[in-house]
Design a protein that fits this description.
binds 2-phosphoglycolic acid; single chain; 10 helices; globular; alpha/beta; TIM Barrel; 8 strands
Length: about 250
């Protein structure tokens, strides 16, 4: 892990959590906050206010899970980036494979969302990753390179990119350290060709079945600057063990 980039561990709760769980997980995150590593919590929209209150005064960052391309108006069920910022969010996940798959989100849409997020003062965490078929066909680097070039806006202060192989999300399988190293180097090279992107400053997260038992190995890989954590983020002890691994990998 590069010492110039402070690691980030973001806990993506997805569509999980009721008020009591949110308060308990946020309290645990707050207790474990460490000045070597940034920690973000990405609760569902219903818990943003609960979690914001629970982490107030700590260094834990609040993060949305998605935002609309519009800033307000007649869009039932959507959440606008300025509303996330108003709720206390500093970051927003965009283009997660579950959004790309379940809601048919294209990279062009992700880019439009990222532009509106940036305008609202949010740092986008843009997710990319290949399917198993694409990897088996030898196309993983090309697929991710194309997703990056089509999803990343021209200007994105604080940009974070999460590499999440689709086949590793929630499956208990992770990419090998060798494949993660190859992909993260490739992503940084791709970002370096984009105008308006500071490739060296961009934090590149790995996501997909990160657990306490594999976090240290993954975070030790060159060009891995932390992780986007799903299932393990719902267990306070596991999440904090993973945050500790990121802090120690610096
Ligand atoms: P997982 O999810 O850790 O449960 O595999 C990661 C993610 O989807 O962000």
């Amino acid at each position: 892990m590069a010492t110039t980039r402070r690691p980030l561990v973001a806990g993506n709760w997805k569509m999980n959590g009721l008020r009591a769980d949110g308060a308990a997980l946020a309290a645990a995150a707050r207790k474990g906050a460490d000045d070597r590593c940034d920690v973000a919590l990405c609760p569902p929209a219903t818990l943003l206010t609960t979690v914001a209150a629970a982490i107030e005064g700590s260094s834990v960052l609040l993060c949305g899970q998605d935002c609309a391309t519009e800033t307000h108006g007649a869009h039932t069920g959507d959440i606008a980036a300025p509303m996330l910022a108003d709720a206390g969010c500093r970051l927003v996940i965009l283009g997660h494979s579950e959004r790309r798959h379940d809601h048919g989100e294209s990279s062009a849409l992700v880019r439009a969302k990222a532009e509106v997020a940036v305008a609202a003062g949010l740092a986008p965490i843009i997710c990319v990753g290949e399917t198993e078929a694409e990897r088996n066909a030898g196309g993983a680097l090309a697929v991710v390179g194309q997703q990056l070039s089509e999803s990343v806006p021209d200007s994105a202060p604080g940009l974070v990119v999460a590499y999440e192989p689709v086949w590793a999300i929630g499956t208990g399988r992770t990419a090998s350290a060798h494949d993660v190293a190859e992909m993260h180097r490739h992503m940084r090279d791709c970002l370096d060709t984009m105008t308006g992107v500071d490739a060296l400053a961009t934090r590149l997260l790995y996501g997909g079945s990160v657990k306490p038992g594999n976090a240290a190995e993954l975070f030790a890989v060159a060009d891995v600057d932390g992780g986007l954590i799903g299932g393990a983020a719902l267990k306070a002890n596991d999440f904090w063990a993973i945050c500790q691994s990121a802090a120690e990998a610096v």
